[in-house]
Amino acid sequence: MNPRFADWVNNVQETFVREILKVAANPQAISFAWGFPNPSSFPIQELQNAAQKVLSENGRSALQYSSAQGHLPLRQYIANRYLEKKGIKVDPGEILITSGSQQGLDLIGKIFLNKGDNVLIERPAYVGAILAFSVFEPQLRSIPLLDDGIDTGLLNEALKEYNPKLFYAVPNFQNPSGITYTRENREKTAEILENHDTIFIEDDPYGELRFIGQDLPSMKTYLADNVILLGSFSKTVAPGLRLGWICAPPQIMEKLLIAKQGSDMLTNYFSQCVVHQYLMDNDADSHIEGIRALLKEQRDFMLSAIDEHFPEEIEITRPEGGIFLWSTLPEGLSSVELFSYAAKENVIFVPGDAFYVNMKNTNTLRLNYTGSNEETIKEGIKRLAKAINQFMSDKII
Amino acid sequence: MNPRFADWVNNVQETFVREILKVAANPQAISFAWGFPNPSSFPIQELQNAAQKVLSENGRSALQYSSAQGHLPLRQYIANRYLEKKGIKVDPGEILITSGSQQGLDLIGKIFLNKGDNVLIERPAYVGAILAFSVFEPQLRSIPLLDDGIDTGLLNEALKEYNPKLFYAVPNFQNPSGITYTRENREKTAEILENHDTIFIEDDPYGELRFIGQDLPSMKTYLADNVILLGSFSKTVAPGLRLGWICAPPQIMEKLLIAKQGSDMLTNYFSQCVVHQYLMDNDADSHIEGIRALLKEQRDFMLSAIDEHFPEEIEITRPEGGIFLWSTLPEGLSSVELFSYAAKENVIFVPGDAFYVNMKNTNTLRLNYTGSNEETIKEGIKRLAKAINQFMSDKII
Fold first, then answer.
1. Which residue of A has its CA nearest to B40?
2. ipTM greater than 0.85, yes or no?
C-alpha cells in the first residue's frame, strides 16, 4: 500500500501531544496540560432525569434523523440567552447546532477558505483553530496579543496588507493566554474592521465563565453581520455531549448548512434533546454560578502557589474568567526544554510552541487549573517551580 | 457584508431537497423520499436502561472529553464483530468512531484529496458522498452500476486513464440503487484493483440488513490494507445517536486521527458509552433479525404494489437487503418532471439527478420503503402509478 495523502497532511505541525501523553500516563504525574472541566461540576443526576424524560416521552423522534440545523427549541433557547445575557438579537434560524464548537471552525474553514487565502489569528492562538483551518491550506497570519487584547496597530497593518477573509479570535479569557480584550480594545478593533470585508470569528467557549469584573460587549454589538459567533455547552453543561453552535447571518448560514450535511448530516439529536430538556427543567444560571465559584477558587489556588514558589522572572497572566493561565519564561529559554525538567518532577503543561504557527522553542507555556483540587494544584506548582529553578540555573549560569 | 466564499461553495450542485421538503410539509403526503429507518425498530427501553447505567455508574467519565479515536470497548466490539460476521481480522486500533458514517467520508476526503485529484464513484452514487468529497474539489469520475455490480470493463479503463486516489463504493444494497455486487463481480473488481494504488472505500451502512440470500465477502478479504471500511449504528441501533466508524490500516489511521481532532475533537462520548452498554446488555443479533424481517415485509409490500400498479415499461430493482428500490422510466422521460405529477398526487420520492454528477433530467428515481406501513406503501404506490400513467400519456403521445 502506498497511500497518497493530501498536501496539508504532509505539512501538518507536530503538536507535542504524544510527549505529553507519555508523561501523563504515569499515575504520579500532576497535569496542568488539558482544558478539561472539573467533572465535579457535571449535572449528572439532572442529565439522567432529562434523558429518561426524553426517551419515555419522545424516544422515537429523539433517536431518529432530524434537521441538519439542529433542534429548534434548543436554538430558541440559545437565541433567547444571547438577548438576555448579551443584548444581541438573533433569530433561531441564524443558529446551527454543531458537534462541539470545534466543528464550527471546520465548517467555517470549509465554506470560506481556498488554498492560499489569508486568515488572521491571534499570537498565541487556539491550537484547535490552527489545526481546523490548516486542512484548507490558508496563509495564517498571527497578530500579537497584548495585555489588553489584540495589537490594534499591527491588526490595522495586516488588514491592509493581506485583505484577509477571516479574523479568528477568542476575546474572552483566551485559550491559551487567559487574556481578555478590554472594552477600549474591542471598540478600537471594531473601528478598524469596519472598513474591511474581513469576517470576525468570535469564539466564546468561556464567555459565561467570568468570575471577576463585568461582562464586556460581544464584537457582534459593533460589527453586526460581519461577525460569526461560536458557542459551546462543553464548559457549562458537559463536554462529552459534544454540543456547540455557530451563530451566523442567513447568507452565511445557508452555506454552513450545506457544509454541515456533507460533514456529518446533523449533530447527535438525542443529546440535543437531552440538553434542551435539562435546560428547561433546571436553573442553568445557578449551575453556572457554581462553576464560576469553583473556577475562581482553583485559579486563586494556582496563582497564590505561583506567587509563593515561582522565581520572580517568570511572568504570569491573571485571568478574570475561563480556565487557563499563561506563563512567560525569561527570553531565550525554551518551554519545550523546560518540559523535560518538569517531566522528571512529574508535572506537565503544554509548551507554547503548540499555539504558534512556525515558531519553535518559544519561552511560553499554558497552565490549566480546572482539573485539580487545592492540594494537587499546590503540589504541582511546587514541582514546576523546582523544575524551573533547576532549568534556569542550568541555562543561565 | 460581502462574504467571500470558497470556490466549491459557489459550484455546489442543487439537491432538489427544498422542493421535496415543500411537498413533504403537506400532512396528506406519503413520502418514499428519505432513508429513515422505521422508528418502531428503535430499542428505546433498552437504550433508556443503558443511559441510566452509564450515568449512574460512570457519569463523570461518560460526560468528560475522551480520546479522539473513540471508546475502546466499543472499538473492541466492532473489531470482534468483523471477525465473527465477516471473518476479517482487525485491531481495535484500526477503528475510529465517527459522528455517523457520513463523517467518515469527510475525514477520508480531508486526508486524501487535493484539488483536482481523481476519485471514482458509482453511477448512480450516494449523494452524501458526492457532497462530502465536493468540498475538496476532486474530479469525480463515475463508473456505471450494472445488475451484478460495477461495470468492471469501464472500471479497468478508468483506473488506467485516471490513476484515481480513491474508488468509493457501496457493494451491499447500494444507496440509491439497491444493487449488490455479486461474488464474481467482487472477485473481478479486486483482481483489477490489485495492480493499482487506488484505495477502495467500502461503505457498508446496510451490510447487516440482508433479508434474502447469503452474505458476500467484504472487499477487504481480497484487497487487505488497500481497503477502508465504513460502518454505522444508524440502521441497526438508531440514527439520532450519530455513531459510525472507519476501519483503516495504521498508516492511514494516524492521519485520520489528526483530521478527526481538527473536525470535532471526538465523537459524542456519552452516546458511545450508551450504545456500548446497550450492546453488552442485549442480544444485538436478535434485534437485527427483527429489523431484517420488518424490512423484508416492507420491501415485499412495495414490490407487489408496484407489480400490480406500475405500467410494464417501468423497471425496478429487487434488492436482497437494505432500504431502497431504484426505478427507471422509459428513456427520455425526466423523473424531475414526474416529481411534479407525483406532488399533485401527494406522494414523493427522490429524483435520480441527485445521485449523478453533472447529469440533468435523468429517467431514474429512488424509493424508500422503511418509513411506511403496508397500507401507506400500497396507497403511495397507487398514487405514484397514477402520476406515472398521467405523465407518460402526456409525454409519449
1. A60
2. yes
